[in-house]
Design goal:
Distance between the termini of chain A: 36 Å
Helix content of chain B: over 70%
Distance between the termini of chain B: 56 Å
Helix content of chain A: under 10%
Radius of gyration of chain B: 22 Å
Largest sheet of chain A: 4 strands, antiparallel
Number of domains of chain B: 1
Structural class of chain A: mainly beta
Oligomer: heterodimer
Number of strands of chain B: 4
Order of helices and strands of chain B: HHHHHHHHEEEEHHHHH
Largest sheet of chain B: 2 strands, antiparallel
Shape of chain B: elongated
Structural class of chain B: mainly alpha
Strand order of the largest sheet of chain B: 1-2
Strand content of chain B: under 5%
Chain lengths: 349, 259
């Protein structure tokens, strides 16, 4: 009897040891956030959570009880109040934004890491299986486009064209109604983070250490700037200047006209998210867990340690600032305009 | 410390092999596992030597007699055991010390494979931190080609055949079989099959393959590939050290009984 118990304990210990090392679970990514009508919809780990933006009260969670599904993509809100969100078990869900009741509509071959987009009743969803899918709201496939590698970047839809960055180094422009390729451009490195829309251009970052502007019309590269380190997310633009960070923690302000460096700021950790450019300055997060606020001359207004690690883009909500964290016990932190904490959403049990 | 001494060098060697074998991650995992097992072969040899000594002790008449004689006096039995260790030139730690030293290497190997198969954003960020910038170019490495034969090494493996409605977990089955065979190869013959440690070994040999099957069934196939390679190389190492009785290894008690 003693022997059997010992063997069971050894086996359990082995299983725990191995599964503990696989890197799956809550820390695979950071929260995906969508805000509409004073309600925040956040995907993080075992669920999608609807939260009152005023006071941080949890309104509902989907699914009600934790399952094997892990959600990190930001839910896309449809015109009729449905949320579309994919999980890491390859399933795409539709959830009623009011009640939190949802169901599965489509299964792909791999994880849904990128955020889905809904436009004119069509879901555009990029999967890590390499396909960009166009689906109706019931999950029926309208078309799919195969790329040569994983898709983690969000689709960007502008005037009936879907722009999709791929790990295969290509930026694709695809006809939104037919799924046929308009053009594709080799950007020299994997495109992982968000694409950013600017007048006539798509801005993006590559793992080949570059921030790039691509002409929307023909896919030609307009300019590229080498930062010396991988650029995860696309740059943001304001009044002719471009702002972005790299994985070494360097934050750049460039003049769009000639890409000269106007100023540079060094953070204490990788900068992953696209910066938020607001009237009172620039906000971005760094991997050391700090929220950094600069003015447009590069002067530090504050650097606030908020979490163990921060990766996402700060989200403006009614004059406040919402931060998604990768803390074990906290999902969201809401700050006022001065950076003071208003409320936090703890990880629901 | 663990990262800089074990994980980072392992990841870089694994990725270096990946680049020189034409960006085939499956072959890189196989070669890397073989390389690590070869590097740690002296430890395995020492472990085998220690196990042989312990097995010799178990069948030594003086030890069997001492066990009977001092069955109620544990202190005296321990003294007799130490005296026999000395006389037979056995170091009782010779078999377990190499295992203890190898254990972190095996865990490091496993963690490196998992880290390199980065299949989520934070795992990818972690991977970029573990690549030596002057040694490998992350921009050339990403995306990692995780396809090997019919498998995506970042996902659990199933072989889908047109006439079957479900996928066959081929690698998980191979993990089960090779783990069982390796356990049999590694277990030295016991003088008394009914003693406590022999019974425990027997049960572990039965249960462990099923646990490994479950892990292989559930986790990325890259990990299963590592398990299978590691088991096969382990069996070959033991065979090279004269520890494997292939006849015994492929004999199954359940079939014997029926015959």
């Amino acid at each position: 009897m003693k022997n059997k118990l010992l063997i069971v304990l050894i086996l359990i210990l082995t299983a725990v040891l191995f599964s503990g090392c696989t890197g799956t679970g809550i820390s695979s990514s950071w929260p995906g956030i969508t805000v509409a009508d004073d309600v925040i919809y956040a995907s993080y780990g075992p669920g999608v959570f609807a939260v009152n933006a005023q006071n941080g009260t949890l309104l509902w969670r989907y699914p009600e009880k934790a399952t094997k599904a892990n959600f990190y993509a930001a839910p896309a809100l449809t015109a009729d109040g449905q949320l579309v969100v994919g999980d890491y078990t390859h399933i795409l869900h539709v959830i009623d934004a009011k009640t939190g009741q949802g169901h599965e509509i489509f299964t792909a071959e791999s994880k849904w890491i990128s955020d889905s987009v809904v436009e004119d009743g069509t879901i555009y969803a990029a999967n890590a299986d390499g396909y960009l899918y166009a689906l109706d709201l019931n999950g029926n496939e309208l078309w799919k486009y195969k790329t040569d590698s994983l898709l983690w970047s969000n689709p960007l839809i502008i005037e009936s064209v879907v722009y999709q960055g791929g790990m295969d180094h290509f930026l694709y422009a695809i006809d939104a109604s037919t799924g046929s390729l308009i053009w594709k451009t080799d950007c020299g490195g994997a495109i992982i983070g968000n694409l950013v829309n600017a007048d006539g251009s798509i801005f993006l970052g590559t793992m080949a250490n570059q921030a790039i502007a691509v002409n929307k019309a023909d896919g030609k590269i307009i300019w590229q700037y080498s930062s010396g380190n991988a650029v995860w997310s696309g740059p943001a633009i304001r009044e002719g200047n471009i702002y972005f960070g790299d994985l070494a923690g360097n934050f750049y302000a460039l003049a769009e006209a000639d890409q000269t460096v106007l100023w540079q700021y060094k953070a204490n950790g990788a900068i992953v998210g696209t910066p938020l450019l607001s009237d009172d300055g620039i906000y971005f997060t760094a991997e050391d867990g700090s929220l950094i606020h600069l003015d447009y001359t590069g002067k530090l207004l504050y650097s606030k340690p908020l979490a163990e690690k921060l990766y996402g883009t700060p989200v403006p909500v009614n004059g406040n600032l919402l931060i998604g964290t990768t803390n074990k016990d906290t999902i969201l932190i809401m700050l006022d305009g001065n950076g003071n904490q208003l409320w936090v959403l703890p990880q629901p049990k | 410390m663990w990262d800089s001494i074990i994980i980072t060098p392992f990841v870089n060697v694994l990725l270096y092999i990946y680049t020189i074998v034409g960006q085939n991650f499956g072959i890189a995992i196989i070669l890397f596992t073989i390389l690590i097992r070869l590097v740690t072969h002296p430890l395995t040899a020492q472990q085998v030597k220690g196990s042989k000594g312990m097995a010799a002790l178990q069948s030594d008449k003086r030890w069997i007699d001492a066990q009977k004689k001092y069955k109620d006096d544990k202190e005296k039995l321990a003294q007799e055991q130490m005296a026999l260790y000395k006389e037979l030139g056995i170091n009782p730690f010779a078999s377990c010390l190499p295992t203890i030293i190898q254990f972190p290497i095996i865990i490091g190997l496993y963690q490196s494979v998992m880290l390199t198969l980065a299949s989520s954003p934070i795992e990818m960020l972690n991977l970029t931190k573990h690549v030596y910038p002057g040694f490998l170019s992350i921009s050339q490495l990403i995306p990692l080609n995780s396809k090997f034969l019919w498998m995506n090494l970042g996902l659990p493996e199933r072989l889908h055949l047109s006439f079957l409605s479900f996928g066959i977990p081929v690698l998980a089955i191979l993990v089960l079989v090779t783990t069982y065979l390796q356990s049999k190869a590694m277990t030295p013959p016991s003088a008394n099959p009914n003693d406590q440690s022999a019974q425990m070994s027997k049960m572990m040999n039965l249960y462990m393959p099923f646990l490994m099957f479950y892990l292989a069934f559930t986790f990325s196939s890259g990990l299963s590939l590592y398990f299978v390679t590691s088991n096969i190389v382990g069996i070959l190492q033991y065979a090279a050290l004269g520890m494997v009785d292939f006849k015994k290894m492929f004999s199954f008690p359940i079939f014997k009984k029926k015959a």
